[in-house]
């Protein structure tokens, strides 16, 4: 073959593939492209996706909660499937695993709360909203409204009042509306009261919060998860949230609160699962397209309609099994660059696995060409999907967006909902998945999703509710985008001046 005289040398393997199967992105002017049409769509089979999904989202894995043996068993399941597919281990020490420590802070079971000598059952009548060590034995000052804070000094006093609706209210039909209502109300009210120098705060649920206490209180019972480097100062003012019946005596103005609040600190292991499918080009295989998802979910909690297991089928077993299908396709016909698959742990505890990997990658960070992250890709209308990071200010790589949109136009043919990419969207969905740490690290990244639904973070997120045909389409779209990135002569770049708004 005659050597090209162009100043941009094209590897022979890429040019051969271009001549064989044609350009996927003919006419795209932003980058010199030598991407080929994905040749292994037939490796992405609905039957395989369904089988893997029903295994990973089964009750036997108990919701795969981060920091538990259930999460570790899920990670082993993923790693074994990767091994069966012939993927190379790309974790630590020649394994598929990258372990990292989770620091968990919880309210200790020894905690006791009494009003007028009557004990309140922890996690049934009263919730300590943040782990704290404190001893209280004091009269309670009842406030009818926040205006009462101006009628005398409250410094050093235990104060109580009814929980006030937050302003503004969470947007109608927003996911986990009751949780957001209570969290926003607590934050707003306690901020005002802490400024008065109070010793403790007791908030009595209002009529809106009362029926939500069991679900929301589960979050407080679980405690706080952190990476060790994220450790923050412990709260200095105890905040209790109590049921209306338990809090009724507080309104008398003569109530006495006695509380012994204890906290525990634990270190748990969590784990990322990492595997690699080598690229076909001897030089370009040193670079990787990173496919990203998370294998954990919410675990076991208080029963909802008799079901206590948060299976997390859509969130995020769908993407975990999609990555296995993409790996199967990559093994059948490798792209020029390698494919790196990272199943993150502890996403539900604050994107902790992806934060850890972005800071401690098992490959040179500079070798990661792009991150294609998915979260929840198997529900809602059959022909709709979203690509977050495709519009400003979230877009950090216009060439990467162009490739994803072209792949959708040619192969998946979804109607793209861009409204959730708007920074004013009330869900803030862009910031709630594993691409974010990579964007902050300066790596081109996108977020593929079919968006939220009423079963989100409930025990109803079951495998039986997943649209397998749609899941297969989303898998092929992610795969086609990664294939284009893999076979592009010039690697995609971050847009000049790209910066997240928060």
TrEMBL record:
Gene3D superfamilies: 3.50.30.30, Zn peptidases. InterPro entries: M28_fam, Peptidase_M28. It comes from the Bacteria. GO terms for biological process: proteolysis. This is M28 family peptidase. GO terms for molecular function: metalloexopeptidase activity. Pfam families: Peptidase_M28. Residues 272-479 form the Peptidase M28 domain.
